[in-house]
Amino acid sequence: MSDTWAQISDLAFEAALAGYVVALVCYAIELASRRGNDAAETATASTALRAGNTGGTSTLVRTGGAADRDRIGAITRPVATWGTRFGRAAVVVTTVGAAANVISVITRGLAVGRLPLGNMYEFVSVICAATTIVWLVVLAKTGARTLGTFVMLPVVILAVIAGARLYVPAAPVAPALNSYWKWIHVTTVAISSSILLVSGAASVLYLIRGRLERPLPAAQTGPVTAGGGRPRSVLATLPSMATLDRIAYRTAIVGFPLFTFAVIAGALWAEVAWGRYWGWDPKETCAFITWVFYAAYLHARSTAGWRGQRAAWICVLGFVSMLFNLFFINMVVSGLHSYAGLN
Q1: What domain range includes position 156?
Q2: Would residue 14 be called left, alpha or beta, if left means φ above 0 and alpha means ψ between -120 and 50 degrees?
Q3: Is 58 exposed, middle or buried (0-12, 13-18, 19+ CB in 10 A)?
Q4: In total, how many domains does the chain have?
Q5: Are residues 143 and 208 in the same domain?
Q6: Which residue, 290, 286, 284, 281, is CA-closest to 258?
Q7: What's the pLDDT tens digit per position in 135-164?
Q8: Distance of alpha carbon 68 from alpha carbon 244, whole angstroms
Q9: Is the pTM above the cut of 0.90?
């Protein structure tokens, strides 16, 4: 075991955590700034509308030559707002943080001479890296940058918990558990959980966006803004419901087969380590429940009567079950999976 590689891994993880925190702050600033921009645009449009309704006059201004038109075009040409600049910076910092996280994982593996998935610290570190990479891929495909706040928030929470509560020094695992099925099982669990984490976050925001877009009775419309419209929530700047639904579904159809294979590989590893394929251990039971939820979600998504919010609720239940399995089962419940670097 190399102490040098272990030190590099620890420093890289700290750099990744710092990058994730900065990225989260930048995403949040852009999200908040978009609300202000929308409010300003609404006020301007409402002022013009009131002027027209109250008999306001309009003035026809004769423009000059090409020089004047060029000057006017330069003035009116859209310039990136400070919020947009923070959003672009968030993507850059997210990429840097993901690269540092990957370096941390690789050097941890070099330090211990095995795949770095032997305890909860290493497992959560891999989940953070994989989730961030999945998010960057989704962002490149959809451009839904306002979703970044809600994806990076659980990543930051996981990274903080990993560094503060789950960290263990680099060391080999118990020989009885050092099977190639372990590495296959844990690797696919980490990757599939990362993908399904993005799917679950998109489903949660889909439900929230659905409530925001639900029309209210006239008596419940609330106060009006200076521009004449209802106050906009920060969440109203999220991607459309169609975009959130597409992200949730497409990530689920990638993550679910991997999760299915992970469960099967875990059963094969259990037979090698404990002499039985399935024993209804608490973690095995919760993994099966999670699998049922996501299978039901994909089935509901293909059924006309269960599309939309009903299907999204099933995906959220699977998301909650997955997080419960990851933390509560490993940290609180006693079972055959309690060896995961905590006890």
Answers
A1: 1-40+83-172
A2: alpha
A3: exposed
A4: 2
A5: no
A6: 290
A7: 999 999 888 888 888 889 989 998 998 888
A8: 44
A9: no
